Recover the amino acids of this structure.
């Protein structure tokens, strides 16, 4: 019964993501027809962020963003690709090639900016390396810390369920709740 409920919830969430992603993709196409590529880029990025594995709108959004990387909105399009790819990372990195390409392109474009950031260097090559290093830094929580926090929540919930059902002595659920809480807090602290 719990598995059926869990699958139903996952199905509803996935359906919502696909519908919203398709809507955002359509909004982007509408903006392009109106001659507003910056707004289209924002809509395509939103469509790519509504990530569901194998959903067709995600690949279409990335393809439309890549088409906009030539021209006056190139930097905005590359940043949208990078942002969408980073936003959809979980235990794995979907669209890793798009992320790497976007970071390289952003570094290349930023390095050619005559008002490049302080400390970036004087030559284009030095600035490109500086920007590339900054873009590739991962400031998100480590996967290990996230996994520990997730495991802590699961153990805590299992302990709470055991406590409510009272099928075991109170010591077992109490230990599970305490252990889950410690794992969860350690995961959050190290994130």
């Amino acid at each position: 019964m719990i598995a059926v409920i869990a699958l139903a919830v996952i199905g509803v969430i996935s359906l919502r993501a696909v519908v919203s992603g398709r809507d955002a993709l359509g909004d982007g196409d509408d903006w392009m027809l109106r001659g507003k590529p910056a707004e289209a880029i924002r809509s395509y990025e939103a469509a790519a962020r509504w990530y569901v594995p194998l959903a067709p709108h995600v690949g279409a959004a990335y393809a439309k963003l890549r088409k906009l990387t030539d021209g006056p909105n190139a930097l905005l399009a590359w940043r949208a690709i990078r942002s969408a790819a980073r936003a959809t990372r979980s235990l794995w990195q979907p669209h890793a090639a798009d992320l790497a390409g976007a970071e390289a392109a952003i570094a290349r474009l930023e390095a050619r900016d005559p008002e490049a950031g302080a400390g970036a260097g004087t030559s284009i090559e030095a600035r490109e390396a500086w920007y590339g290093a900054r873009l590739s830094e991962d400031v998100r929580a480590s996967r290990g810390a996230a996994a520990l926090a997730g495991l802590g929540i699961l153990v805590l919930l299992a302990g709470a369920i055991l406590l409510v059902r009272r099928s075991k002595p109170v010591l077992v659920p109490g230990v599970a709740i305490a252990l889950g809480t410690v794992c969860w807090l350690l995961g959050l602290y190290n994130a």
